[in-house]
Specification:
homodimer; Quinone Oxidoreductase, Chain A, domain 1; Rossmann fold; seven-stranded mixed beta sheet
């Protein structure tokens, strides 16, 4: 048996049953799966969005286990697994169609698992996978940036100090060779973005005027990590001809695509779960990306994004981590260390 | 002086003044401009769309000269022009913000001009530029296809037998190494697509079922050359995870972008005029593309798309060419030979 934390109903985080601890069967690995003993997890906005929507007006029979970011140790491997052996330290984001990482043990397909960065702590490692894969895929799989050809082009990262923004600034700067303009509005979040390597930090209110102030009235690329609908018209206005807009958010309402026409602009959704959800031919890219990032972390080219560590895998800490995410004001990443 | 054909009012093509012939000053080249003596022009859907919208409820003082596809001979060069000399045979699409090719002479920035394919006639050459640039940019500048890495991926070309479809099938097959599925619905247009190298030709009605019939229920890429709005939901359904949709049409109404989210799909507008309209840093790419295409035409790797030649630069022939475009049923390209 193992301990897990989940929910049977979508409830406000303040309510006592918004999360419950329970005992459940420890799973066994088969096929490409690894069984990982989890040592640390992190929380992302997707967590509270799913918690708030997965069980509205119903009570689930068994609690739903969410959470997609973990670091830990391989305890057993499936028959087809060949990339890892028992005892290996790993880190991964996971698969939204399967049970999450808010548990002592988890099954995970090795094709989306990376070797943990050697020089980083388990907590620092658990903070990385989901945001790193999101930022990397946005730049290299969606926009398809060529670091030599596109060197020096400009990218606007909306919400630079948040979890994904914190690693996106670094990957855009250090791996994609771009000039990075991040948005942030408080003194501590502005400083955080600068420390991570942003060339400019501007306020997200009145983006157009802010960009003009720094002499970049238009940008080649935009990463929206906050609100596609809210930024749509501004994005269409400040994007350069042949530019590319990537979003991880979305819009419940339809949007005017024609705003992109005259400038031949491209637009992509980045959803980190796509590869595992559809078992795409190139699913193993996530394994490679996580290994590449681990190397760059070990060399010090990239810096950890962890800012807050909560000690102990408890309902209280998980609630606290969700509350922090829901505030929308966290800087960097929050981790729960088991 | 020179002869030109233009319009002062947006009128149905049947009306006597829908086009008028007139005499106007022969222009002089400066800067990067070439003065080209035009020998052949072709007509594209953009022509009748502009004719129908540029002068509604007004009468222009001087007739508007449209047309963006020509082949001819350089008669004079501007002070900064260095790629061409007097007497060179050239072909080009042009710049939507300037006077068009429905004239005996035209000024054109050399950075968007190519050397005419040596083994093709002037009429065959005039048929190519606008559609070729559109198809090439769609595949290599918007989707950013890598012919080695993406070899064998599938592309659906909606309206395969039309002007841009006819060259897109060939570029997708011969230059991008893709498996090409084109849509066409009449026996002659189906045969035309097959002759150009399409691996499959399917009917555009009930696309999903047609794709299933040929064993490709989903495709990696879609080029929409007909109606973005009409195909939007179907496109979102039949596109593969991480796929890419390119359109040259558009939608007056807003569209649900969220349909692309789960599959991390990308979307681009391709507007051949973007580079010249905004004088982008890479504007000269169009010069390079046209030269590359000329070589492939000369080697026989690509085939001309010309199907109809109207002899004589007359109002009657221009009206006829517009009428054919407006029917939406033309196969390949229509050219007017001066």
């Amino acid at each position: 048996m193992m301990k897990a934390i989940g929910f049977k109903q979508s409830l406000p985080i303040e309510e006592s049953n918004s999360f419950i601890a329970f005992e459940t069967e420890k799973p066994k690995p088969d096929g490409f799966d690894l069984l990982v003993k989890i040592a640390a997890i992190s929380v992302n906005p997707v967590d509270y969005k799913i918690r708030a929507n997965a069980a509205i007006d119903v009570v689930l029979d068994t609690p739903k286990i969410i959470g997609w970011d973990a670091a830990g140790t391989v305890e057993a491997v499936g028959s087809k697994a060949s990339k890892f052996k028992v005892g290996d330290q790993v880190y991964y984001a996971g698969d939204i169609t399967r049970s999450g990482s808010n548990a002592e043990y988890q099954l995970i397909d090795e094709r989306i698992v990376g070797h943990k960065p050697k020089n980083l702590s388990l907590a620092e490692s658990a903070a990385l996978p989901l945001t790193t894969l999101t930022a990397y895929e946005s730049l290299f799989d969606r926009i398809k940036i060529n670091p030599e050809k596109d060197k020096g082009k400009t990218i606007l990262i909306i919400a630079g100090a948040g979890g994904v923004g914190s690693i996106a600034i670094q990957i855009a700067k250090k791996m994609a060779n771009l000039k990075v303009i991040a948005t942030a509005s408080r003194p501590d979040s502005i400083q955080w973005c600068k420390d991570l390597g942003a060339d400019y930090v501007i306020n997200h209110y009145n983006l157009k005027a802010e960009l003009e102030k720094i002499g970049h009235s238009e940008v080649n690329y935009i990463l929206d990590f906050v609100d596609l609908k809210g930024y749509w018209e501004t994005a269409a206005e400040i994007i350069k001809p042949q530019g590319h807009i990537v979003t991880i958010t979305g819009s419940a309402d339809p949007l005017h695509l024609n705003l992109l026409k005259e400038k031949s602009v491209s637009f992509s959704y980045e959803f980190m779960y796509t590869r595992s959800m559809f078992t795409t031919d190139d699913m193993e890219e996530q394994h490679k990306i996580l290994n590449e990032i681990a190397e760059l972390m070990d060399r010090g080219t990239l810096k950890p994004t962890l800012t807050t560590t909560l000690e102990g895998f408890t309902v209280e800490n998980l609630k606290k981590a969700h509350q922090m995410q829901e505030s929308g004001k966290t800087i960097g990443k929050t981790v729960i260390l088991f």
